[in-house]
Amino acid sequence: MRKLSILSISLVALLTTACNDNDDNGAPEIEIPGITFDGDIDCCSAEEALQVYKFIQTVHIVPELSLSIDGKYDITAYSSAGEFHTGYNEIFFVATKKLSGNYVKNFDISNITPLMYMIKMDKEHSTAVGAVENFDNGILAVKRGWVSFVMSSSDGGSWTLSYDATVLDGRGTLERAGITVNALPNGQTWLKSFKAGDDTYYLSLVNPTDWVTGTNAIRAYISKKSAQMTTPYALANEVFTVEIDPRMPDMGNHSSPNNVALTRQDDGSYQGEINLTMSGLWRIHLTIKDASGNIVAGGDDLDDGFSSLYWDVTY
Ligand SMILES: [Cu+2]
């Protein structure tokens, strides 16, 4: 026991000495498990590495989506819960060097392709997928993409996901990794589709679990079903307006004031404001208008005067 402590102390002393040596080079002293900064130009600054490290403590690994490239690099994928559910899911990617464990700053993830095999129809279809971009200001070592699943895994069908990765001199492909898409809790509907002309569009509500009582930013994406069903559904080029009418169906369908319709932003997302006056189930009735202001979906088509196109969110 005593021997062990002495050994540990000398080890710490050794490491400390090693660290102090680095001071001459001006290397910052930030301890991140498994990360060394010595002369690794591909890695981030110590500050960036710390940001990455802190960020990945807030998400969970999706083990099915890990990829090893040429025995030199590892891609690790994360989502908020380490699994997926129907509707909008963010996926985060981090690349590391196998040998040092260091993050790699510049890498690319592309061609994220989810596919669902529908057993009865013996057919495959994809779903709505967003572009992969840098996670946040300055943090190049985390890439973020999103997938909005139109259906959950079931006896009727199962999902796989593929993607391509480029890390420095390495290239790799994750080929059809099996994933599970969980159904949302009962009564929750965060993804809806509508038809305009011959086209089918998907409305993905972004992270309603973040909502609080009062005014919230409400974000969504509108994706267009691809002519070839196995091609991931990209954001629609058409510009719409999404008018919202939030009601509480369990409380006489009362509404809330000061809601703002979702309009298309520069980044391709739709954003508006939703005012939730209390917690509980909110049915957000939707009216979709085209660029000329014509109603293309929803409206007051229900008997009670509300739109049959809606998201259901309990918060
Ligand atoms: Cu399906």
CATH architecture of the largest domain: Sandwich
Order of helices and strands: HHEEEEEEEEEEEEEEEEEEEEEE
How many DSSP-defined strands?
22
Largest beta-sheet details: 9 strands, antiparallel
Please give the oligomerization state of what you see: single chain
Strand % is 35-45%
Ligand inventory: copper (II) ion
Q: How many helices does DSSP assign?
A: 2
CATH C-level label of the largest domain: Mainly Beta
Gross morphology: globular
Low-confidence stretches: 1-28
For the termini, the CA-CA separation is: 52 Å
Q: Helical content, roughly?
A: 10-25%
In terms of structural class, how would the helical and strand content be classed?
Answer: mainly beta
Could you say how many structural domains there are in total?
A: 2
Per CATH, what is the topology of the largest domain? Immunoglobulin-like
Alpha carbon gyration radius: 24 Å
Averaged pLDDT: 88
